[in-house]
Design goal:
211 residues; single chain; 8 helices; alpha/beta
Length: 211
């Protein structure tokens, strides 16, 4: 039995289609207007983008969305835009029913639950706080994003274990990405690859997890 479980979001707790077909287009369509309307919030992000790539930072951000770039400034800005969408009920956060049931069961059993996603911590809280199944944020003890480190680097998982205060071997990591699973295992964590299509993964749903 793990003492803590860390889960990815996209393709793991939540549909890839929800992110790709709802969240990304919503942010892309509103990004230029949001930046213009919120100069103080946007200025540090645009400066960080310009320092990374010369040229028009707004155009760079739009291209990064198209490329699904896992860039921290992009994720931060997307989270700000999505906050408006959740608040206006333009959409609700998708979470698979099996994930909802398992997360509630694990929380009741005293297992510490955490999220590690390329989306910003703010965006993670929005998705779970405005989900189809209601507010799930009380189930989680912590959230981690790319400010902790890349998701395919073992050092990121060692940093998460240290932050949680649990030995790596007592943590179970869940993801749909083989490279992330490999990185977590290299850091000493237990890890399960989820494939919701029933392919080459270790599990097909959260119902298959014994914890």
């Amino acid at each position: 039995m793990p003492r803590a479980i860390v889960t990815d979001i996209e393709g793991t707790t939540s549909s890839i289609a929800f992110v790709a077909e709802t969240l990304f287009p919503y942010a892309r369509a509103r990004l230029p207007a949001f930046v213009a309307a919120h100069p103080e919030q946007s200025a540090p992000i645009l400066a960080e983008v310009a320092a990374t790539e010369p040229g028009d930072p707004v155009a760079t951000l739009l291209r990064w969305i198209d490329e699904d770039r896992k860039a921290t400034p992009l994720k931060a800005l997307q989270g700000m835009i999505w906050a408006d969408g959740y608040r206006e009920r333009a959409f609700t956060g998708h979470v698979y029913a099996d994930a909802v049931a398992a997360l509630r069961r694990w929380h009741a059993d005293g297992i510490s639950l955490h999220v590690f996603s390329s989306g910003s911590v703010a965006a993670q809280k929005l998705l779970f706080g405005h989900g189809d199944a209601g507010d799930l944020t009380p189930l989680f003890s912590g959230y981690f994003d790319t400010t902790t480190g890349p998701k395919r680097e073992p050092s990121s998982y060692r940093a998460i274990a240290a932050a949680i205060g649990v030995a790596p071997g007592d943590i179970l990591f869940l993801s749909d990405t083989p490279q992330e699973i490999a990185a977590a295992r290299s850091a000493g964590l237990q890890a399960l690859l989820i494939d919701r299509d029933g392919g080459a993964g270790d599990i097909a749903s959260f119902e298959d997890i014994a914890a």
